[in-house]
Design a protein that fits this description.
Length: about 140
């Protein structure tokens, strides 16, 4: 059986070594607790997500990337007129990251590793969703 490790983290995560050491500890713990391996589940964003993906690839481990659909049409549940515009003129849905977080949580995980830095609201959102789904959280702060 493979342990699913959901990664959420700040785009400005400042400590790649702390992230790598934490993932190594989790991998070790999982294999000691009758899991054959781990899969890293992440949102594909800059920062902690990218560092976790690179770590997984470097260790020959599977990873699942679930990218937010920022420029896609809004969901039926989005409030009217909430889309925002970037400096380059493109529009995006500011709730796309929340929908992506919920999707990753809905897929299930054995643990949510939260690499929280600079009061990241996206990381906090994913932690709340994981808690509501009964997924244990290990919060790492830098």
């Amino acid at each position: 059986m493979t342990a699913r490790i959901l990664i959420t983290g700040s785009r400005s995560w400042p400590d790649p070594q702390l992230l790598a050491d934490t993932l190594l500890d989790i991998w070790h713990d999982a294999t000691q607790n009758s899991h054959q391996d781990i899969v890293i589940v992440h949102g594909g964003a800059d920062g902690a997500d990218t560092l976790a993906r690179l770590w997984a690839e470097g260790h020959g481990l599977e990873h699942e990337q679930h990218t937010a659909a920022w420029t896609c049409p809004c969901a039926d549940t989005c409030p009217p007129g909430h889309r925002r515009q970037r400096r380059d003129g493109t529009e995006y849905c500011p709730l796309a990251g929340h929908r992506r977080n919920q999707h990753m949580v809905d897929l299930g995980a054995d643990l949510c590793l939260a690499f929280h830095h600079n009061h990241s609201t996206g990381t906090a959102d994913c932690m709340r969703r994981a808690t509501a789904a009964g997924i244990p959280i290990r919060k790492v702060i830098a």
